[in-house]
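Consider the tokenized backbone below.
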């Protein structure tokens, strides 16, 4: 489903990734762990093809970075859900509108929009807050909205970039439980985190990155 072959990419600052080989199979839950600046976010950006390898190549759901054209981006992104640390919600739209906006942009049939939006809100336990504005929600609730928005196009994988980084321990645990339930239903998840404590005791695969290189 996702394969990185000897992938390297560096910014002018020197940060980036070097010679990365990684495979993620359908339905897998993988933690990508490393300190700030280790290359976690860069690796995620390479997977959703926001940046492209300077050497090596990536194949995501049949899309090869060597042959990728800009017109393919909307089709690729529909198969990848992205969750950010800072939520990136539209503050002038309600919870429900934040989710339906994604479906409108991708040309979903009007009859399906409400049904799919309500379904993902139920999955993250926020059906009762669908008419609230983002600023009326707690940080944990805002992240749940972000997860619902990432899920609404029924992606094959969720890429989560430090999704618990701005949350207290209770809210962070709630987010992890939601991601677990999503994964059990068959959606693959790649979650970046700097927290060793967060992954202690997990039975999921852990990939360590340091100075742009995968070390285990």
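A designed sequence for it:
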């Amino acid at each position: 489903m996702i394969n990185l072959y000897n992938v390297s990419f560096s910014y002018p600052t020197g940060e980036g990734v070097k010679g990365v080989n990684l495979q993620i199979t359908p339905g897998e839950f993988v933690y990508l762990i490393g300190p700030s600046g280790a290359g976690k976010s860069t690796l995620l950006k390479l997977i959703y093809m926001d940046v492209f390898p300077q050497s090596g190549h990536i194949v995501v759901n049949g899309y090869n970075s060597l042959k990728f054209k800009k017109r393919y981006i909307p089709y690729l992104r529909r198969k990848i859900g992205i969750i950010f640390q800072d939520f990136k919600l539209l503050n002038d739209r309600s919870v429900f509108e934040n989710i339906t906006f994604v479906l409108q942009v991708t040309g979903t049939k009007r009859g399906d929009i409400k049904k799919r939006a309500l379904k993902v809100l139920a999955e993250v336990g926020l059906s009762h807050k669908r008419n609230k504005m983002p600023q009326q929600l707690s940080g944990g609730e805002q992240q749940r909205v972000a997860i619902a928005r990432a899920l609404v196009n029924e992606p094959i994988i969720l890429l989560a970039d430090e999704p618990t980084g701005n949350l207290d321990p209770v809210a962070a645990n709630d987010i992890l439980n939601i991601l677990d339930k999503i994964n059990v239903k068959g959606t693959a998840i790649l979650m970046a985190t700097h927290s060793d404590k967060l992954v202690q005791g997990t039975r999921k695969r852990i990939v360590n990155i340091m100075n742009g290189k995968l070390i285990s």
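The mean pLDDT is 94.
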